[in-house]
Design a protein that fits this description.
Number of strands: 4
Largest sheet: 4 strands, mixed
Family: Belongs to the peptidase M48B family.
Strand order of the largest sheet: 1-2-4-3
Strand content: 5-15%
Main location: membrane
Number of helices: 12
Organism: Streptomyces pactum
Cofactor: Zn(2+)
Distance between the termini: 28 Å
Number of domains: 1
Shape: elongated
GO molecular function: metallopeptidase activity
């Protein structure tokens, strides 16, 4: 990755390499199984898989921004937000990403983009309204560290396989891939095997992305706290954002839940299985780490 003043994290780098290797292997196996199952339809399967992969990688920033309602803003439209990003980028010695705002009361922020030049950092109106300037800078530093460490791109690619599995399953079942086969028990077997394979692929990719996501959030907290030198401001922002989530209408939280892996804090609509498979570590874990960093900085 391009050098910045964000603290490097070898643990994160190792996990990203391992996740990408396993996801890539799973991707190849998945396409291979589909080619075997669908017989003469394999050229179309490979074409669809390749086209979707390229589209997801090259247009991930636009897809994510559109999905989460982000709109790019100028310094005149959002001077405080741009000012905070300018200061942090100068402090981190990194290129300034595009800056966006999402018009929602859910207090959150996210970053996306396959590299630093294509990156976009977005804050919601609900977040900017609730946080003090130093707290907002802590959150933005957290998001910028994702860009600097390139784990945003890795998460985008890793989450792609689950989307691909569902898409190809629907195309295979309803697009007529089985029409060329004998109309006997083989067709019925295909109708059962394809969803089963897709479900297994989705489950494995889901677990891999969740394990990486939890670690990368702790890594981003650490990097942001060390860069700004104010872990208490980030801890305060975390406490505020997490506390305010309970006051957000359930409908809004459910709309945000599919994108939790990219958000600063998870939007959860209740105490459910979603918490067990959360994309983020618990608030207690994050605050405990920030407390230790604060002690270390005080000693230094």
């Amino acid at each position: 990755m391009a050098r910045t003043r964000f603290a490097p994290d070898r643990g994160l780098a190792g996990r990203m390499v391992g996740t990408m290797f396993l996801i890539g292997l799973l991707y190849v196996v998945f396409v291979g199984v589909l080619v075997v199952l669908l017989g003469n339809s394999w050229p179309l399967i490979v074409l669809i898989a390749g086209a979707m992969f390229v589209a997801q990688f090259w247009f991930s920033d636009r897809i994510a921004a559109f999905s989460m309602g982000a709109r790019e803003v100028t310094p005149e439209q959002a001077p405080e937000l741009h000012g905070a990003v300018d200061r942090l980028c100068a402090l981190a010695d990194m290129p300034k990403p595009r800056v966006a705002v999402a018009d929602t009361d859910v207090p959150n922020a996210f970053a996306t983009g396959r590299n630093q030049r294509r990156a976009l950092v977005c804050a919601t109106t609900g977040l900017m309204r609730r946080l003090e300037p130093d707290e907002l800078e802590g959150v933005l530093a957290h998001e910028l560290s994702h860009v600097a460490h390139r784990d945003v791109a890795v998460m985008t690619i890793a989450s792609f396989l689950g989307v691909l599995a569902g898409m190809i399953t629907r195309v295979a079942l309803w697009g007529g891939f089985t029409r060329g086969n004998n109309r006997d028990s083989n067709t019925a077997i295909l109708m059962l095997l394809i969803p089963l394979v897709s479900a297994v692929v989705y489950a494995i990719s889901f677990l891999l992305t969740r394990l990486l996501s939890r670690y990368r959030e702790l890594s981003a907290d650490r990097a942001a706290a060390l860069l700004t030198g104010r872990p208490s401001a980030l801890a305060s922002a975390l406490t505020k954002v997490t506390g305010q989530m309970a006051r957000i209408p359930t409908r809004d939280l459910r709309q945000a839940e599919p994108y939790n892996a990219f958000y600063f804090a998870p939007a959860l609509s209740g105490a459910s299985m979603a918490r067990l498979f959360s994309s983020h570590p618990t608030l207690e874990q994050r605050l405990d780490q920030l407390g230790r960093i604060s002690v270390q900085l005080g000693r230094g």
